[in-house]
Amino acid sequence: MTIAESLSPRSLRAPESGIVEVVNYARGREGLIPLWVGEGDLPTPDFIARAASDALMRGETFYTWQRGIPELRAALSRYYARRFGISLPAEHFYVVGSGMQAIKLAIEALVSPGDDMVYLTPAWPNFAAAAELSGANPIAVPLDFANGRWQIDLARVEAAITPKTRVLFINTPSNPTGWTATRENLSDLLAMARRHGLWIMADEIYALYHYAGGRAPSFLDVMEEGDRVIFVNSFSKNWSMTGWRVGWIVAPPEMGQVIENLVQYSTSGVPQFLQQGAITALDEGDAFVQANIDKAAKNRDVFCDALIATNRVETLKPDGALYAFLKIDGVTDSRRAALDIVDRTNVGLSPGTAFGPGGELFMRACFLRDPKDILEAADRLARYIAAR
């Protein structure tokens, strides 16, 4: 028996990330413009890093609260009052080791092996993989794509619901498509969940990256007390903290002990000194977040305008999130195209094959980078497309 044959079938089912495959293929090349992963090019700002560093030097290095230190949970409550106009006591917030862990723990809390979880595609691949690793069945419902824009078909979503369904996973604004649910969409989805007795898992990590102005519509705008909605989120995108691996869950206080137990038996809590940096991000980081949003908005226009002008790219400027999702004429295998593009242009894109049904013909580019890099990447890609 080989080593691989001796491992659990569940672990062997964990798929290789189609995004990471391209990253590993070209990482470290001189002159590379990496638009493949969902992060900007700025490090965490000094005022946030300094708060964590000071806490580290003060000796805040011991075991800590499984649900998050009280000061951070209170800061999250203030953040939601300011950004979402809702009063949620600190007991609704749970600090976890990244947005990814927030998703995994929420799945563990809500489903049993064999249950179905309905989600919209194209989608960030980690949700479906995490569901499968927990023994659940991710059921993909593709968004409609027409005239460069993505739309939800609510009848198709409801048709995917069966007696085995437990959760609707809704990511809006969407990675990778930029699709952003309207308030009416969210009301309809919530009504659907109520009819069928389902939970909604809401991934609103890109809520502030909403190019119509203000934040994107949220389930918090339409839900009522007693609705079964759990939110997963992260410090990664807003405050340039991707490497910190700090996230949070918003859930009914009745779930508190369950979430605490799941944290205990996975990471046993987020380091306290990192949580001190997260408090500073929430309380003092609004100007930095706005600068990131403004940069993303300008880069979105520059990048998309340049590629649309080739007349060989089908896309519209996304309504939200950080990505241009591009359908390039003649690309029928986006995995192969991503490898070819990085070889020929030294621009790193993610292949649409990584994002599930409906994404196969597309390429994803993250535009939260230095505007000079975005201009250069657009020029290289336009020349590549013209030469095909």
Automatic annotation (TrEMBL):
Its cofactor is pyridoxal 5'-phosphate. The keyword Transferase applies. The keyword Transferase applies. GO terms for molecular function: transaminase activity. Pfam families: Aminotran_1_2. It catalyses: L-aspartate + 2-oxoglutarate = oxaloacetate + L-glutamate. Keywords: Aminotransferase, Pyridoxal phosphate, Transferase. Its EC number is 2.6.1.-. Residues 33-381 form the Aminotransferase class I/classII large domain. Belongs to the class-I pyridoxal-phosphate-dependent aminotransferase family. This is Aminotransferase. It comes from Shinella oryzae.
